[in-house]
């Protein structure tokens, strides 16, 4: 028996490859299926089952395409209602895979169809659980994604409490936990950085598995501090339930090379969003006016999903040479399938064609420190609320990137202001959005909070009265 976790850091997502005696099961595959198909072929094995722990909200799974390619059935737990052909398993149903067994444990709570898959080894002993978004390391799945209006987040949290205590916690301490996500995912609040653990350790470390916790206490703790889910979540759920275009078609359309004239014509004709995925330092030095920066080298796909409201939005790409297909694939992972092409030759081709371009004013933390000491400056910290509360520049205002459009009325258009984040990635995203909205008086603090600390700028950990309130 082989169990491999295929972890994708950009999405903080774990897919799983299980092989026994020439038969393979894939759990929660990513949309690009070639790695799974190629792996099985290399090992002379056949993909027999595709298991889905639930209808994912934060990414588009590869289950439909993988099933079409291999003929393997898609398996959901009870109450799932996909539009395509699938096996809707009963609670406790078992599926034989080579010399091992995968057992269905219906664990509603994150969503009503959420299911944990229990792997029994060749001896019939409970070996591992693939818990999807039911149980993370250090946390559990958020219970506020119900697709039916008559089910509240408190209802789901109550179901999750029961699922954990009747299906998960009775299992032996040596059972391995393979979660659907790790730290950085928007599907939970406070996950550990590790991606594999034992259930016994989780019983000690995970607040949600406290033996003496009442249901009321659980509901309160699980629902406390939940931020609004990204707007693309329901759109991804819809795609995962109803199906989607083959990724090969998406790649072919999205990797069409366009010269500057063609690029500009299409951008204007269909009101395409020009998305620049280069490094933030390159974007600062020069970019197409009103283009939006979200770099591939950061948390690309989640930020695309959080900041671009409509997955059907037409997109044109500015990439480094050779990164066009990578960008299209990573957009498709979160359901953004309407990429129309990329600028051949990149930004340099745009400049060489004599087209207008823009830049971002950026200063070092040392220069910023001098200005803080000698001028009356206005500072906007675009990190998350919790980061800001933990430590921030005195009198800086918090304008979290994921809600940046809600703060526009608070940001000056006529006087200079400064933006920073933790390391320089998010502040340039924020700067690009603000410039596209007509705010050209901003100044980026290069290196973010890391550079600010190193420059010795005084910090405070108290929420000051100037903190902006989420609209």
TrEMBL record:
<dbReference type="GO" id="GO:0006749">
    <property type="term" value="P:glutathione metabolic process"/>
</dbReference>
<dbReference type="InterPro" id="IPR044528">
    <property type="entry name" value="POD-like_MBL-fold"/>
</dbReference>
<keyword id="KW-0479">Metal-binding</keyword>
<dbReference type="GO" id="GO:0046872">
    <property type="term" value="F:metal ion binding"/>
</dbReference>
<dbReference type="GO" id="GO:0016787">
    <property type="term" value="F:hydrolase activity"/>
</dbReference>
<dbReference type="InterPro" id="IPR036866">
    <property type="entry name" value="RibonucZ/Hydroxyglut_hydro"/>
</dbReference>
<feature type="domain" description="Rhodanese">
    <location>
        <begin position="268"/>
        <end position="359"/>
    </location>
</feature>
<dbReference type="Pfam" id="PF00581">
    <property type="entry name" value="Rhodanese"/>
</dbReference>
<keyword id="KW-0378">Hydrolase</keyword>
<dbReference type="InterPro" id="IPR001763">
    <property type="entry name" value="Rhodanese-like_dom"/>
</dbReference>
<dbReference type="Pfam" id="PF00753">
    <property type="entry name" value="Lactamase_B"/>
</dbReference>
<feature type="domain" description="Rhodanese">
    <location>
        <begin position="373"/>
        <end position="461"/>
    </location>
</feature>
<dbReference type="GO" id="GO:0070813">
    <property type="term" value="P:hydrogen sulfide metabolic process"/>
</dbReference>
<dbReference type="GO" id="GO:0050313">
    <property type="term" value="F:sulfur dioxygenase activity"/>
</dbReference>
<dbReference type="InterPro" id="IPR036873">
    <property type="entry name" value="Rhodanese-like_dom_sf"/>
</dbReference>
<dbReference type="InterPro" id="IPR001279">
    <property type="entry name" value="Metallo-B-lactamas"/>
</dbReference>
<dbReference type="InterPro" id="IPR051682">
    <property type="entry name" value="Mito_Persulfide_Diox"/>
</dbReference>
<protein>
    <submittedName>
        <fullName>MBL fold metallo-hydrolase</fullName>
    </submittedName>
</protein>
């Amino acid at each position: 028996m082989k169990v491999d976790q295929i972890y994708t850091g950009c999405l903080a997502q774990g897919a799983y490859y299980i092989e026994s005696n020439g038969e393979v099961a894939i759990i929660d595959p990513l949309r690009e299926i070639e790695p799974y198909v190629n792996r099985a072929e290399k090992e002379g094995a056949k993909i027999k089952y595709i298991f889905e722990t639930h209808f994912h909200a934060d990414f588009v799974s590869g289950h439909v395409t993988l099933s079409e390619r291999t003929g393997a059935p898609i398996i959901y737990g009870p109450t799932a209602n996909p539009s395509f052909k699938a096996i809707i398993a009963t609670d406790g149903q078992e599926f034989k895979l080579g010399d091992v067994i995968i057992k269905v444990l219906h664990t509603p709570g994150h969503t009503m169809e959420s299911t944990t898959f229990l792997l029994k080894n060749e001896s019939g002993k409970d070996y591992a659980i693939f818990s999807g978004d039911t149980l993370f390391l250090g946390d559990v799945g958020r219970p506020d994604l119900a697709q039916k209006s008559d089910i509240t987040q408190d209802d789901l949290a109550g179901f999750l409490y029961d699922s954990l205590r009747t299906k998960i916690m009775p299992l032996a301490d040596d059972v391995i936990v393979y979660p659907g996500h790790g730290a950085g995912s928007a599907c939970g609040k406070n996950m550990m950085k590790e991606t594999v653990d034992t259930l016994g350790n989780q019983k000690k470390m995970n607040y949600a598995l406290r033996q003496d916790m009442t249901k009321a206490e659980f509901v309160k703790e699980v629902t406390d501090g939940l931020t609004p889910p990204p707007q693309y979540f329901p759109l991804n759920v819809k795609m995962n339930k109803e199906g989607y275009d083959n990724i090969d078609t998406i790649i072919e359309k999205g990797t069409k090379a366009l010269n500057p004239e063609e690029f500009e014509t299409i951008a204007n004709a269909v009101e395409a969003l020009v998305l620049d995925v280069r490094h933030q330092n390159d974007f600062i030095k020069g970019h197409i006016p009103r283009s939006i920066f979200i770099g591939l080298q950061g948390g690309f796909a989640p930020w695309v999903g959080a900041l671009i409201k409509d997955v059907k939005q037409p997109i044109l790409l500015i990439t480094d040479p050779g990164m066009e297909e990578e960008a299209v694939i990573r957009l498709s992972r979160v359901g953004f399938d309407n990429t129309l092409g990329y600028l051949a030759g990149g930004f340099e081709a745009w400049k060489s064609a004599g087209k207008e371009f823009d830049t971002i004013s950026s200063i070092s933390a040392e220069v910023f420190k001098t200005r803080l000491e000698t001028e009356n400056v206005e500072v906007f910290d675009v990190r998350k609320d919790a980061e800001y509360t933990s430590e921030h520049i005195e009198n800086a205002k918090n304008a979290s990137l994921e809600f940046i459009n809600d703060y526009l009325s608070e940001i000056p258009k006529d006087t200079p202001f400064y933006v920073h984040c933790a390391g320089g990635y998010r502040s340039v995203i924020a700067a690009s959005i603000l410039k596209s909205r007509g705010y050209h008086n901003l100044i980026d603090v290069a290196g973010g909070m890391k550079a600010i600390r190193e420059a010795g700028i005084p910090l405070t950990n108290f929420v000051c009265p100037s903190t902006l309130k989420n609209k």
